[in-house]
Amino acid sequence: MLGHLVPFHYCRDHTGELPCRKILDCWHERFAVHEYLRGIYSEEEIARIVSPPRPKLLQIIEIARKARGHEG
Amino acid sequence: MAVKVLLNEDEIPRQWYNLAADLPSPLQPPLGPDGKPIGPEDLAPVFPMNLIEQEVSRERWIDIPEEILEILYRWRPSPLRRAVYLEKALNTPARIYYKDEGVSPPGSHKPNTAVAQAWYNKQFGIERITTETGAGQWGSALAFACAILGLKCKVYMVRISFDQKPFRKLMMNVWGAECVASPSMNTQAGRDVLAKHPDTPGSLGIAISEAIEDAVSDRSGKTRYSLGSVLNHVMLHQTIIGLEAKKQLAKIGEKKVDVVIGCAGGGSNFAGLAFPFVADKINGARIEIIPVEPSSCPTLTRAPFTYDHGDVAKMTPLLAMHTLGHEFVSPPIHAGGLRYHGMSPLVSQAVVEGLLTPRSMDQLHCYESALFWARTEGYIPAPETSHAIAAVIEEAKKAREEGKEKVILFNWSGHGLMDLSGYANYMEGKLVDYPLPEEELQESLRSLEGLPKAPIVKTGRW
């Protein structure tokens, strides 16, 4: 999605939380990334990792509500 | 033989076309967590109300304000070119035309909506617009639009792109936009991430959060957020492409188009060219209209139409879209702009109706086609555009085999001069094809079992 090459550790650790949801998309041709993830994460976490994003309009509304919550 | 068809400024279309008015089966509205449709008030903190009105409009034609046209005249009407050199190389009886959207200042179709969105924001009293960008195509388009309209523009660019791909960032700076690496210390979302992970290279998700937070937390109310794909008003603004093409084809004496082609990721450049021809098809014209997507990431060609859902808790809002399900795994691809899980709802519904005939292409075939194009027509296409070119070549060969003088029209959505690394990878043999195997698709779709199914609403006319 970024339009350029990225190293695997970016996809693995880019937010310090769960890996990027595209990690399987982008790396499974190179090695058994699903097996790699299974060695680290639970099935529930893997399901969260590979979940498609919410529809754009709804993501936006949700982020806006959260941000306005920050304002108190 | 004419190889380009130009329109004068006074021949430019003066209205956008809204397919939502003519779809034989109505769009299914996005639902909130409470099961009720999302309303304008939900969107008001993020977008100006004049754009929200366009987002939900069912009016067939929407006037393009004169002031927007005055800005678009810088590169519009864009040329309609005839690919005579490709035709000769293929020895095809087909006549191949393409809309050249690479002539805009940022080099793609994106400013068609960037200019419109910036103008409507300004009309609403907005003084500053925020957005996010990855590699920078959208960010540079919005920066350009804001520069022309005298608006402030702030772009949150994913840190790793900010560091590794500086030229789009420089384009934004040249146009006066503030481009910051995301995550930043400018927002609570960014500060939260940096507090935990000070060396993070960022992500698009974080950048979106920062851009929206920046907009909605401006207590002056003078800032809004802007998005460059997927939404209905974005499709609307892009229809000027197809409306111009119809005038240009008429000008050169073409009475009928047989095939219309565009690459499809979020849907905007495809919709921009195709929707005015979809209207003709609804009214009885016989046109094959083909959105082209990567075979490694098929959302239109093989996925069922169903409700998508965003997390394992299944508590998030639902929207009718094409989907591949939770466990969908797409192989690598260099056409980043086409790697969407979801598609514009308008495009999805047109597929359901049978008005569109989606097709998928392998990336190696696309790059091969792009090189063939560059070595005949001369222009280097964006990797996304190469998907459309691959389909055009297929159709031209088919016309040769059938001995038919078909008229083929496609959208040359942008140049690839900022995307040469993908070409380098192809020419160095680093790319491989990996179409989604049927068993992998079926495994992916099993995650959708038990979820509410979108009612398939179609007239069955096509």
Protein model, in words:
The complex is a heterodimer of chains A (72) and B (462). In chain A, 57% of the residues lie in helices and 0% in strands. Chain A contains five helices and no strands. Chain A has helices at 8-13, 23-27, 33-38, 43-50, 56-71. Chain A is elongated and about 40 Å long. Chain B folds into two domains: 66-106 and 233-446, Rossmann fold (3-Layer(aba) Sandwich), CATH 3.40.50.1100; 111-227, 3-Layer(aba) Sandwich (Rossmann fold). In chain B, strands 1-4-5-15-10-11-14 form a seven-stranded mixed beta sheet, with helices on both faces. Chain B has a four-stranded parallel beta sheet with strand order 8-7-6-9, sandwiched between helices. In chain B, strands 2-3 form a two-stranded antiparallel sheet. In chain B, helix 5 crosses helix 6 and helix 11 packs across helix 13. Chain B is globular. At the A-B interface, helix 2, helix 4 and helix 5 of A face helix 7, helix 9 and helix 10 of B.
List the helices and strands and how they pair.
The complex is a heterodimer of chains A (72) and B (462).
Chain A (H helix, E strand, L loop, with lengths): L7 H6 L9 H5 L5 H6 L4 H8 L5 H16 L1
Chain B lengths: L3 E2 L9 E3 L22 H4 L5 H8 L4 E3 L2 H7 L7 E3 L1 H7 L4 E6 L10 H13 L4 E6 L3 H13 L2 E7 H6 L1 H9 L3 E5 L5 H9 L7 H13 L6 E3 L6 H7 L1 H12 L7 E5 L4 H15 L5 E7 L10 E4 L10 E4 L22 H9 L5 E3 L1 H12 L8 H20 L4 E6 L7 H8 L10 H9 L16
Parallel strand pairs in B: 5-15, 6-7, 6-9, 7-8, 10-11, 10-15, 11-14
Antiparallel strand pairs in B: 1-4, 2-3, 4-5, 12-13
